[in-house]
Every structure is written in C-alpha cells, then in structure tokens.
Design a protein that fits this description.
This protein is α+β, with helices and mostly antiparallel strands. It contains five helices and four strands, in the order αβββααααβ. It has a single domain, classed as Sufe protein. Chain: A. Strand 1 and strand 2 form a beta hairpin. The longest helix has 18 residues. It binds zinc ion. Zinc ion (ZN) binds next to helix 2.
Length: 151
Amino acid sequence: MTDDLRELYQEVILDHSKRPRNFHGMPEANRQAKGHNPLCGDRVTVFVRVEGDVVRDVSFEGAGCSISTASASMMTDALKGKTTAEARALFERFHELVTADPSKAATAAAELGKLAVFAGVHEFPIRVKCASLAWHTLKAALEGGDRASTE
Ligand code: ZN
C-alpha cells in the first residue's frame, strides 16, 4: 500500500468515526443483536429492518474505538437496499479482507468498494476484531441470534 493510499484510508476512517452514519436506535427494526469485543471494550447494537428478503434499513448504537465505530458506520451505509444474501456475501468478503488471506484479499477489496479502507487492519491483529465486530453482530441479527462476541 502506498503512503497516499494509507493516508486516504485513515481520513475515511477518521471521518466515519467522528461523524458516524446511521448512528441511532430503530424502534421499527425487526432484527437486532448486541456485539462485544472484550479485547478492546467495543460494544455495538445493530438494528435491521428486513422486508421480504431486503435490508430496508440498518443502524447502530454503541461505544467503541474509532476503528469499530467507523466500521459499523460504513457497514450500515453499504447494506441498505441489499438482499440478505448479498449482506451475508459482503460479510464473507469483509472477513477475507481483514483476515487477509492474500489470495482472496485482492478480490475481496475489489468487491467491497469503499469498505476496502479496512484492508490495513490485517497488519494489526488486535484491530481485526474491532473492524469485524459490527459485521459479526449483523450476521447474528440476520440469523436470529441476539448476541455476538469476537471471542
Ligand atoms: Zn476497538
């Protein structure tokens, strides 16, 4: 990764952590789950409104480090209007990206668009759990669970 790219990625993450999108509760949610990353202390609740097979709306609440907040913010932005199958596929790609199986990470990054800014976290194993917390919580919510942990 070039320094320019790294800087751009940091700006995007900083922006989303300072001004998280879709950061609110959702009384009309019909799926929700709480997630906890004990390693860092991040906590997140993900709210999803699923209609038919489509994610109509998604939001989150919680408190955590800038990586976990930015990741949740960008995840909610990316998921609106996706089918639940597409949402699960994005989860898989994101997981490949941050755990950086080098053979898959490049393809994953191409499919993830803006979410590829999290590619850098694989260099910091402790941060992988921060970045993936919201996604694990989303997956739990879609599968009808109410709790997710990065452990
Ligand atoms: Zn964290």
